[in-house]
Task: structure prediction
Amino acid sequence: MTVLGYSSEKEFTPPWRVREFIAWAVIVAVVALVLILSPRSAGRKTAAPETPDLRMILAARYMVGMTHVLPTASQKAEHLDETLASSAKSPGERLEVAIVRGELEGKAAALKEIDSAETADPSVRKDAEILRGIYAGTPPATGPDLTDFKQRHGWFADLAESYGKPATDPLRAATVEKAVRTMIVAILVLLFAGLAGLVGLVLLITGIIMWFTGHLRTHFGQVRLLPVNRAAHVEAVAWYLSIYVVGSLLLGLFVHLFPGLNTKWGLLLLPAGFGVAVLWPRMQGESWAEWRAAVGLHTGQGVFKELACGAAGYLAGLPVLALGLLASALISKWSGADPTHPIMREINGDPKRIVLLLLLASVWAPITEELMFRGSLFAHLRERWGWWRSALLVSLVFAIIHPQGLAALPALGSIAMMLAMVREWRGSILGCVMAHAINNTIVLLTLVLMVT
Result:
């Protein structure tokens, strides 16, 4: 009797089939396509970026907030944080650095940076003239140029426009309040992350000791089924990636060719790809019971216990995640890439937009991605290989197909390995969904509080 790659009597490893090689060829092709296009998603900017650099906004607001809460920090703030300076990859962003310099060092420093940015690219002349008028005390009257300036530079435009105004001025108060909130949230998150990391380290060490002493059992494969080949599951993942990734690229091409195209229909790619992937094994003759067992869609030792174990697994994985984040930060610094998910650029003050992003990142993504990667793909590989090789390959595919670029691979890979650990430990996919949801919710809510 096979147990997702195990046997109650004698272990049986089914041979690879031609269909599986074809499915893997499709997966590799999609992954290669994402890798080829990764420089675009890694954050390379044009001369006039349409979307803000999230790291730059956070660094700028943190420094401005710090100088207003702790005036003694102004001496250190005069030497702009390296992250802020290195994040300015276009003349337009250099103007934003100039605005922060004006706030921290005075208008002379701002004007010098403005001249430098305009010399580098004369296309920013209109914005440069607006800033010179602000610092000269003769801000321009309301008009299309000023409106465009505010739309392009957002919070930075408000910071410039409120320069020199009293603290009681409504625009000045609102702009500074956002900066102070960013600083406070950043400090609280660091404190929370440090505490959670210590708890996670204790859990991780305890788990390792229990594993080697035989006191920690893994529950993967305890749902016993008749022998069933998992070829349909790797094919399902191939369908999922093809429809979503290739479909998104084709949609982008159509938008380029037909600018008036309604892109809202592109949202159907998400449920379409997932729906085909879920139905494919059933179409290949697998029963719903077999599919649920293969992907781990069962209650294990109880729904609440599985969810709690997922949360504990997330905490235990935080030290590994910290190493992944450090590696990604070093790669990002070395390459100049911005490993930010495009969804983060959609964050604004619109409550409806924030709710939509939360549903997408904290509900839809954990459920669908876990069923596909730690469910179907992991079960397919785990039937033949050990946990380490299966987890590494699944984690690599998972990390690459995300649109953050190559710099984010260590961070995403460490998260994926943690989720695969939970899947191996619990067998049920519920813990993986819980851990994934916790991670995405914390990240998204933190960014919402820091940048809106």
